[in-house]
Amino acid sequence: MDMVLKGLRDKEVFVYIDDILIATETKERHFEVLKLVLEALRAANLKFKPQKCIFLCDRVAFLGHEVTRSGVRVDPSKIERIQQYPRPTCVAEMRAFLGLCGYYRKLVFGFSKIAQPLFELTKAKAPWKWEETQENAFAKLKECLKSAPVLSQPDVEAARSGERPYAIYTDAS
């Protein structure tokens, strides 16, 4: 799919394996880009199921995220799944929980530090001891994901004017 849509991938067409997301500013532009995508798929003799397509919507679930005009956030159905996740009772369950949460680590400031007590339980030959430290980390991780921010591109002009400044945090690890 990457090769088929190579010339179209920019700020409006996003591809992951066989999932395609088209995000445009106007309905007219959306139809233009959609036509180009469909023509590229037809030229490559690729087919799609119309019943699996969603057209002209304000928000869409894409790869576990909800994408809207204002940005990207955790898909609400995933937040609910994380909130309902029972306390792990073994290493396999802990790894499953950390895997689910880890997918959204970029949305949780200090994810590794918060989850560290939980990761300790997954180390080889580590005894399974669920204590207050693990309970607090488990609850905090759930809470952080429930209130995770919406990721959006900064408004450079508003930042330059001082109207809405922003800071960039990096992780050198």
TrEMBL record:
<dbReference type="InterPro" id="IPR043128">
    <property type="entry name" value="Rev_trsase/Diguanyl_cyclase"/>
</dbReference>
<protein>
    <recommendedName>
        <fullName>RNA-directed DNA polymerase</fullName>
        <ecNumber>2.7.7.49</ecNumber>
    </recommendedName>
</protein>
<dbReference type="Pfam" id="PF00078">
    <property type="entry name" value="RVT_1"/>
</dbReference>
<feature type="domain" description="Reverse transcriptase">
    <location>
        <begin position="1"/>
        <end position="67"/>
    </location>
</feature>
<dbReference type="InterPro" id="IPR043502">
    <property type="entry name" value="DNA/RNA_pol_sf"/>
</dbReference>
<dbReference type="InterPro" id="IPR000477">
    <property type="entry name" value="RT_dom"/>
</dbReference>
<dbReference type="InterPro" id="IPR051320">
    <property type="entry name" value="Viral_Replic_Matur_Polypro"/>
</dbReference>
<dbReference type="GO" id="GO:0003964">
    <property type="term" value="F:RNA-directed DNA polymerase activity"/>
</dbReference>
